[in-house]
Amino acid sequence: MKIKIAGIGSYIPEKKISNTDFGEHVFLNEDGTAFGYPNEVVINKFKGITGIEHRRYAEDHLNSSDLAFFAAQKAIKNAGIDPETIDYIIFAHNFGDVKYGTSQSDMLPSLATRVKHKLQIKNPKCVAYDILFGCPGWIEGVLQANAYIKSGMAKRCLVIGSETLSRVVDAHDRDSMIYSDGAGASIIEASDDDAGLLAYESATYANDEANYLFFGKSYNPDLDPDIRYIKMYGRKIYEFALNHVPAAMKSCLDKSGLSIDDVKKILIHQANEKMDEAIIQRFYKLYDRTVPKDIMPMSIHELGNSSVATVPTLFDLLIRGKIENQEIHKGDVMIFASVGAGMNINAFIYRY
After folding, report:
1. Distance separating alpha carbons of residues 270 and 266, to the nearest angstrom
2. Angstrom distance (rounded) from CA 171 to CA 104
3. 120, 198, 289, 323: least surrounded by Cβ within 10 Å?
4. Which residue positions in the chain have pLDDT lower than 70?
5. Strand pairing partners for 184?
6. In sequence order, what are the beta bridge partners of 8?
7. For 30-175, where are the alpha helices, taking DSSP H only?
8. Neighbouring C-alpha atoms within 13 Å toward the C-beta of 180
9. Is the full-model pTM beyond 0.90?
């Protein structure tokens, strides 16, 4: 038995934030000192490394669970199913609902429960819960759905990745320009044809790597030190990703029994353009191959890094023909992969 993505949907917020919108920010070093160069230089360096020109922020009156609800509605419609037939709702996020203008995370009730309520699913046997797995959360949710379905515990699952990272960033940290908001949702069920998940890989590295992403105080020493924001050691994450993600992708592909030449698309977490390109280069080098043209669709230039939402949103955009010079065909083999807080890595091979 294989499982497939029977429906996909995403919600991309309407509020578009350009790099130039950060021109008046007061960016500081970790010790609170000012940079010795203007913001224009900071922004140009940022764009050169990450590839990000724009990102999306959620409308002020919407929370992460609202974005998830909109994406879930689209996935359910795309799959053409009755939501009452969903056995599990698996919601991947990192910070819960953070209302605009506040800093407190709200996860009671769970965001999955909130989505079930908004969808008006009455079936009590539809089990709803959240998972915290960093940016690879949506992929991990798909792997959990795979286990439920193959074990006979479920026939159909709704897996969601949603986040409003714009509400947990330190405005004085230049890394804040990376993050964005959005949601992606998918209906996962058994496959009765050749399509579906063929192999997977998942891992957590937590000895030296656990705190590469963490919650820390603002770089502005005048702000309340008890209010925390998302922080990261960018260079360590970059090196970790290059050392571990290509190997995980190779292990996954080798498990599937397919050749590297069978792979038509690689959908990787939209974290950083240069990092993603380096991961793919290293992955193909493991097979003594050069990277094929257009193998890696990208959305980071316009949407930024919305964590758990990037991969399902990218897949939704790809199959709807919304990514320039990119298309996917029935039977094509794809690799989905992600890396993030934990430090966690996962991947799966998928025949479309």
Report:
1. 11
2. 16
3. 120
4. none
5. 10, 161
6. 186
7. 39-50, 64-79, 111-119, 137-151
8. 31
9. yes
